[in-house]
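Kindly inspect the following:
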Amino acid sequence: MKAMILAAGKGERMRPLTLTRPKPLIEVNGRPLIEHHIQALAAAGITDLVINHAWLGDQLEAVLGDGSRLGVSIRFSAEGEPLETGGGIFRALPLLGSEPFMLINGDIRTDVDFAALALPAGCLAHLVLVDNPVHHPSGDFGLVEGRITLEASEKLTYSGIAVLHPQLFSRCTAGAFKLVDVLRPAIVAGQVSGQRLAGRWVDVGTLERLAEAEQLFGMAS
């Protein structure tokens, strides 16, 4: 299985750190945030990676190179201007191939077991959900008997981790759009499964949550 790491955002809420470097290169627990993902993916046997970028993307390419230093193979999907989550994935599909692939937001810190994630038969997407953090109390999706729902009295938050089938984007055209725009009709059709993450997870979207990630995972990570 291949994997795509989303790394095209400007990280405006992380300023001033992101004024001169892309957010995935901000150090968390002693190494760039994106390297934690790469290391975990490699440990799970996922070594063929695609990384999109826009803001200061040349720095990502310079630091990560072809990935050989980290035991993986990296190809980059340069966007110029960000295409949002869905548009960025759609642009990178020629690099990802025709089989299901792992998707990871570049601005989270987690200890999820990537090797344990899979796309069930008949599904176009499998989402990993987490308990709602303080900054997102209303959640995103319901989870009922392993299936994602839009209508639920209690919702969980999408973690930024998923397994997707390229066919999820079969009706899309080039341009900026959100991943949720293609997920919604698939959810209604019963083609999106999910699970609740029991491990650690932080959305490193602000300086305060950067400190939270440092504390939760510790330097030993």
The CA atoms of residues 75 and 216 lie 31 Å apart. The two ends are 25 Å apart (CA to CA). The first strand starts at residue 2 and ends at 7. The domain at 2-217 is CATH 3.90.550.10 (Spore Coat Polysaccharide Biosynthesis Protein SpsA; Chain A).
